[in-house]
Amino acid sequence: MNCVWEIVLKAQKSRYNLEELRFINSGSPSPYTESSFDFLNSDAIEESEIEVNPLYRFANELGEVFLPDVKGYGKAREIFLDVIMHYVAVWDLRSGGDKKELRAMYILKEIEEGRFLKSIRKTLLSLDFEKSKRIIFCLLDLCKCKDYITIFRKALRELYPKASLYIHSENLRKLTVFTGVDKTKEDTERIEMLKKLFLPISYETDIFWKYHFGIIGVDESMKIGKTAMY
Fold first, then answer.
1. How does 138-168 read in b/e, with b if 16+ C-beta sit within 10 Å?
2. Which of 95, 114, 139 delimits the end of a domain?
3. In the Cβ-directed half-sphere of 201, how many Cα atoms lie within 13 Å?
4. 60, 95, 130 — which closes off a domain?
5. Does position 216 have pLDDT exceeding 50, yes or no?
6. Which of 22, 27, 40, 54 is deepest in the core (most CB within 10 A)?
7. CB 176 within 8 Å of CB 168
8. Do 86 and 130 belong together in one domain?
9. pLDDT, tens digit (0-9, with 9 covering 90-100), for 2-16
């Protein structure tokens, strides 16, 4: 267990409620974890008194109060630490955030402020918050794996759940995209945004909107009046 929220979840499994826990400053804290258990891989809470390192995440905010060389007001500092860590635990559990989400939030904020990606700023921010965040998640994934096609397909389905992506067998840099929605100015701009964010400029794309193109042998794609010609 590393962070306070993990401790609280494990404590609940051990039949301790949050209000029963008492957080105290560790006498020998690790700079790499927020908890200070004897065994790093401990999976159960055996006592209600929990040693923590308040400087693991909050050194700038709490350093002047909890650095080892700070003396005096011992009882007051104990009470303050217990109260603040209870507050942090509740905030952690309610926020449900992680490192990737924090990065996405910072990126969205900088895009909103016009620091970069100005060409897609208006289109990205026209999405609801959750969708725009999911697109940034895809961008972070692309930075890690460099798999343009997989991430483009993932981002496409974040906006268009019925979408399909096809790669031409004779030209691997030519893609056919089916969105499953009516063609509008807004959706055209969104597709262009995805292409700019996730595909190299050497890739070609053909876009089909409401109607799928016909595929011989696939009955669902060969319905009269609901098939696009390709």
1. bbebbeeeeeeeebbbbbbebbbeebebeee
2. 95
3. 0
4. 95
5. no
6. 54
7. yes
8. no
9. 688 888 888 888 888
Give yes or no: residues 126 and 44 share one domain. no
pTM of the model: 0.57
- Residues 23, 122: one domain? no
Say how many domains are in the chain.
2
Which 3-state string (H, E, C) describes the chain?
Answer: CCCHHHHHHHHHHCCCCHHHCEEEECCCCCCCCCECCCCCCCCCCCCCEEEECCHHHHHHHHHHHHCCCCCCCHHHHHHHHHHHHHHHHHHHHHHCCCHHHHHHHHHHHHHHCCCCCHHHHHHHHCCCHHHHHHHHHHHHHHHHHCCHHHHHHHHHHHHCCCCEEEEECCEEEEEEEECCCCCCHHHHHHHHHHHHHHCCCCCEEEEECCCEECCCCCHHHCCCCCEECC
Q: Give yes or no for residue 42 having a pLDDT over 70.
A: no
Tokens linked to 172? 């691997």
The CA–CA distances, whole Å, from 66 to 15, 188, 218 equal 30, 55, 68
* Residues contacting 118, CB < 8 A, separation 6+: none
Q: Which two tokens stand for residue 37?
A: 């258990």
Q: Is the pLDDT of residue 81 over 90?
A: yes
Residue 25 CA to residue 17 CA, distance in Å, equals 20
Measured between alpha carbons, how far is 53 from 72 in angstroms, rounded to an integer? 19
